[in-house]
Amino acid sequence: MNIQESNSVLIPKIKPVVEEIEKVDLVKVKPKFGIKAFMKNKKIYAFFFLVILLSFFITYFGLSFLNFYRKTIKVKNDVSTLKQSLIDQDLNKAEENLNILTASYQEFKSAYKPFRAFNKVPYFGYYFNDFEHLLNAGNYSLESGKILISTAKPYADIIGLNNSSQQKSEQTTQDRIDFVIKTIPDLIPKVDELSNKVSLISTELSGINPQKYPEKFKGFEIRTNIKNGLEILVSLDEMLKNAKPLLESAPYLLGVNDERTYMVLFQNDKELRPTGGFITAYSIAKVINGRFDPVLSSDIYNLDNNYKPKITAPDEIVKYIKGPYLLSKKWKLRDMNWSPDFSESMKIFSQESQTAGIPKVDGIIAVDTYVLVYLLDAIGPIQVPGYGEFSTKITPECNCPQVIYNLESFADIEGPIVWSENEPDKIVYAPENYDNRKKIIGPLMNSILSNALGQPADKMPLLFDAILRSFTEKHALFYFFDDKTQNAISSFGIGGTIKKEYSGDYLSIIDANLGGRKSNLYVTQEISQEIEVSNDGSVVKILNITYKNPEKYDGWLNSVLPNWVRIYVPKGSEILEVNGLEDRKDSYEEFDKTVFAGFFELRPQGISNVKVKYKLPFKVSDEYRLFIQKQPGTDMPLYQIKINGNEDEFFLKTDQEIISKIGK
Description:
By secondary structure, the chain is an alpha+beta fold. It has helices spanning 3-7, 35-87, 91-112, 125-152, 173-205, 223-253, 300-305, 315-321, 342-354, 369-379, 402-411, 436-453, 460-472, 483-492, and strands at 216-217, 220-221, 260-268, 278-288, 291-299, 363-367, 382-384, 388-390, 394-395, 400-401, 418-419, 427-429, 476-480, 505-513, 524-533, 538-549, 561-570, 574-579, 583-590, 593-602, 606-619, 623-629, 638-643, 646-651, 656-661.
């Protein structure tokens, strides 16, 4: 063996062995495509599809809701900012914030688009539809706001708003009135624009039924707020539509270019009569270019002394007032405001007063003591030469404003008025100061006018509010002989007319104090209506009128109140039951209404209740509508209305329409 051989590694040579692979026959297996298998797989596919679809919807609507929520918060904050600028009475800031709100509102509206799909969902779809209408109404509201701000800018100081772009001036109230008169033509097209927008808002919201919403949600009033909002909108829509004719008649009313002559009647609402109060005095005034100039004033009894009565007075006046009607049933001028429709009363009064020496006038304006109080609240105490100070400070002697107490003190003290047996129109004896009423009217009127018109411009908002309240609350009434002007006045609701055409329920309660001194100074009135709508749509009502006099008898201001009440309801109403009347008149028709009427007495510290149950002459289906007209001269009687279990309560400050959806 050599070295090479000893150092080598011998690797045995392995012969590859190829093992024979056993042949296996492959059997073809047929897939199971039977119905059961198919359905099983289909359910699995459907399940996964639904999971995916649901995940998509949850993700999509979740993100959409999150976006919508963010936009909602933004709009809410912008609304709060706008509201604050209005509270601050900053017109320019309000305009700026309104533009910001408009932009965020459009984003908010776009963010809602994904949820429109829910409009078709049963039950809940109703609320989504309502919200859609609400969104559209919101758009029109923002557009209305822009019109309103641009219209208000020139008159910012008059209505109590700050406008930094408006130059400060030392103008008086009369100067600003002159400015308003000059710019009236510019207001008319703006009012048209605003009226159109409000009509669109009203149309969008007209289908919303407050009864389908909960009364409260987390302590927040839902149903009441919706209901009140809809009622305000209806009133606003009607007011704007009627404002245009009034603005067009304004130059005539204010004596622009042509002088106007008016008779002003002073009605004492503390001795309530159908048109607002007993006529105590009158004045003749001239108006030229908005400047009011009293010419003369006198007591109504002085006018009656110059009048030769020839018309027979209404039976109720003759029966309960007695006094001058014991010997003659002829109607006195002072009692001619018997019709609750001011225009009807003034037609008679104006014709008859001309025979007593009243010159021809263009119109008649009636005001009561509330106008006086509102104006003095605005301008503060005034001095009347020869009569001292007049203010609205409450006087303990009568628990009433000092101006009311002073007027009654100057005009009358305790004691009877004795009429001549041979000359019915002649007073034989009257209390001390009886003649003072006609003496004080002129100086008081002049003092109020000179003080009001001489006020600095910053007092204009208060005066504007005083005048507006006097008009809307029916403490100032107007009657004009020019037909176009009279129609404009009546349409705007300051003519004291009875609403003759109305397709729904109607109610107006008219009281007349027939010799109860000044008891209405203390008397309050509460009215409740229980309205039951049957399944067939027929309507039965129970009307309760409660009168209260909490003060003691004093024989001067407060005494037994002999009250004649008239209740105006839809023509054809059927009376079912009446309680609380000592003397009742058969039902009759007037102004296309059915009238229930009667007499009762209310004593000091007493309560009287009149209850009337009656059936309406028509049926209702989806909607119940009620129009309530407030008697001129009254403060704000409390109304409570129950309709099929739903209750509403409010103070009636002006004529009001109630609209209630009837759930079937």
